[in-house]
Amino acid sequence: MNRPIQIADKTWWIGINDRTTGFFEALWPLSRGVSYNSYMIDDNKVAVIDGVKADFYYQYIAKIKGIIGTDRSVDYMIINHVEPDHSGAIETMLQAFPEITIVGNRKTLKYVSQFYGSLPQSLEVADGDVLELGNHSLTFSLIPMVHWPETMVTYDTVSKALYSCDAFGSFGALDGGLFDDQIDLEDYRGETYRYYSNIVGKYSTFVERALAKVDGLDLGMICPAHGPLYRKDPGYIVELYRSMARQDTDRAVLVVYGSMYGNTARLAEAAARGIHDEGVTDVTVMDSATADLSSLIQEAWRCRGLILVGCSYNGGVFPKIAHFMDMLEGKKMSRRFVGICGSYTWSKGAAMKPLRLFAEQAGWTKVEPEVEIVSRPTEQDLDMAVELGRNVADAVIGVDD
Ligand code: FEO
What we know:
Shape: elongated
Bound molecules: MU-OXO-diiron
Low-confidence stretches: none
Largest sheet: 7 strands, mixed
Oligomer: single chain
């Protein structure tokens, strides 16, 4: 999609599909790429809403000039969010259109100057302020911490389009279709979930506040900065985000293990069997050594139960399990159940101590029994892991869906 695509009266998608970058934020794999959606309203005044990463400036400027020609300029660049996946092209925009005014709230303009230096022209807006472009009229609404303190959304009262930036976004490049009625949305659901749980999930309280603001709008289109756009059923993505922000969980259990030689892994297999025996069939067992961390977090966000299984390593628990727990603690997840299993050969308690700390301090409900084994599991050890699996399953079943 190397040309602008008209999405409404005088309104264009001028985004970029990135299938080159390996890791979003240098952390999260982009196996299906990601889009940086940017929009342009070509009215009496010309406004660009959200930008793209600096790497793609050439295509980006070409798209803009493809709409307005070479003898007109862009009047406004509206920065809903300063993270450089959206603001990176600012310097190029300033070079291409020296008269351009950068629009943002007080924090936006502060952060923009931190990244790109002082701006020749800027317009500071506050919550509820309106910018008239001609026929189109834009209202700004601040939604702090979705995903940075300065984040805001822009609503066009004429096209009823909500330009929501990271909110309602998804991983996954756009493969030809832009809108929900042009693509198989189910195909993006996993990527939306992985995006939410890894990028925005920590700020779910703020997402809920933002959703309360959005609830009052007449939504003709939702135009996020990543992933599909919604016009057939904007309520689909609003409700999916509401559910993820509320931390609704499935009647499901994730078992994650760290095992160097396969002995500790047998506890994970036994626990999974116990969960299944008890009637919970949505069970996922993942090896922390080979699984991608973002997929572990995505699955942990979805599942109501978690069993962590780790061998001891350098006086602690297997490092990939330690890292996983560390990431989960930062997510502020709640209303979930956790069970723990550890092993040691010569350092009794080394794995169990951090596992126990997580289970007791993460704000989840710990399920007994703890299972700690020596070197390789005995039949009794495996029976205990099965019992733990059964108990986690019972806890998960005991919550009303
Ligand atoms: Fe898509 Fe928080 O940047």
